[in-house]
Amino acid sequence: MVFVALMVHDGIERWSFVVVMADWANIINKAVTAFYKKVVPFNPIVTRSSTNCDSLIPWRFRSLSFFSPNCFSSNNLLCRLSLSTLSLTLTPLHPTFLFILHLAGISLFQNPTNLYLGQNPSLIYHSICIMGETKDETYEEELIDYEEEEDKAPDSVGAKVNGEATKKGYVGIHSSGFRDFLLKPELLRAIVDSGFEHPSEVQHECIPQAILGMDVICQAKSGMGKTAVFVLSTLQQIDPVPGQVSALVLCHTRELAYQICHEFERFSTYLPDLKVAVFYGGVNIKVHKDLLKNECPHIVVGTPGRILALTRDKDLSLKNVRHFILDECDKMLESLDMRKDVQDIFKMTPHDKQVMMFSATLSKEIRPVCKKFMQDPMEIYVDDEAKLTLHGLVQHYIKLKEEEKNRKLNDLLDALDFNQVVIFVKSVSRAAELDKLLVECNFPSICIHSGMSQEERLKRYKGFKEGHTRILVATDLVGRGIDIERVNIVINYDMPDSADTYLHRVGRAGRFGTKGLAITFVSCSTDVDVLNNVQSRFEVDIKQLPEQIDTSTYMPS
């Protein structure tokens, strides 16, 4: 039995991936012909040894190779070097794609014993139903995870796609694995090495569409793996060309840029020909210019100011960029100065490219700004704005006077069990002073703030991430995007200035759905106002810290 991989166009600028059996081609031909015989001429599905399909213009099409059982290695991973040269072209127009996709989906489930792909067919049918906004109840009970045939796929939580709640009762976020996304074997191997087993909800929603090159704007809770979405999607699509930058990732801080670069390096371990580089301020620009002269990276991560400087000096060319990504996009686009830098950089990239933007907080006001950079983006809001606080994160506050904060902090650090803790303050001077006080009290503390050199900041960040110290005092410099998996307690020594900042701060604990504890000091009426705003906006009840707190509620088991 031979399988055919199709890229199907829906008539409104979207492609969908589907797999059908080759001997269904005649049935699909007849179905399409029935739709079009009285409307327009129809070019039937054809097999050909060439991808030159100019004769089909203006029909939209894309060709992929035939897949047969001997194209797969023993562990079910696709051996891309063994693909047949034959290809199949399908050129549908709306609304026939609905019927075609539906037939293809049914064929998969009526012939489950003939499946050679190492993937869960429920994912394919899931995509079919989302695109067509249709659902066949007959098969809802039958969408079995073929990796664990005795377990039915559990329901998943509905996400918002294009602002509409999507019904997904037939595929669960925990029933599928990363193999279902048909990622490169090299990526799957790196994922296994990293210890990941199942994609998170945001990964499940985004990756299947992102790897098709669609523009994506995504909001999801902190710590749910948004970085892996654009890292894996970019690595899946990229075809490294010597001397050309294919992907550009912009973020607002040096620490976040460093972390994103590290993620690209981690997942590209088995892609030795792919080069990644990071550029940010605080480092002599000559170092970066020399690096670019010696070897041009395929993926560039950086802060807008430094990237703009390198492009204006003609040291960095963006004319071949195919993937343009903004992490913590709201932070970058809300600031007019940073937005201008982003716009100037954006103009230096080709018009035809994929644009992806991510953040834990995307206000309704900033979304239209994001969309101006995109073409018909798929919008994914994994949670309503009112429900963005983290599952598994226990939140409390303490009312006290300003002069009581140091004593109370000392008591908390003595009494609480923790792996690592981050203490947020509102200024550079307070960070330095509090860190000095904690060290004098024999607490293993370090601080990170914008007042120190870039080299020292990265050295301390790396040391804390690797677990060399357990207490970090920081400004909001590390309040967004920084992922340190051992952190299970966040203390707001100073109340943040907004509900959004609060959300990003406490998101440093409870990463990827794990347990965590957030404690906020409230010492004035302004603090009370911010706390009330947090509770009303995110619909969360933050109670005063009790005298005794159960360790099991915030310590991972």
UniProtKB/TrEMBL annotation:
The DEAD-box RNA helicase Q domain extends over 176-204
Q: What GO terms fall under cellular component here?
A: nucleus
Does this entry carry the keyword RNA-binding? yes
Q: What is the lineage of its organism?
A: Eukaryota, Viridiplantae, Streptophyta, Embryophyta, Tracheophyta
Alphabetized UniProt keyword annotations? ATP-binding, Helicase, Hydrolase, Nucleotide-binding, Nucleus, RNA-binding
Matches recorded under Pfam families: DEAD (PF00270), Helicase_C (PF00271)
Instruction: Supply the name of the protein.
Output: RNA helicase
Known PANTHER family for this protein? Answer: ATP-DEPENDENT RNA HELICASE DBP3
Cell location: Nucleus
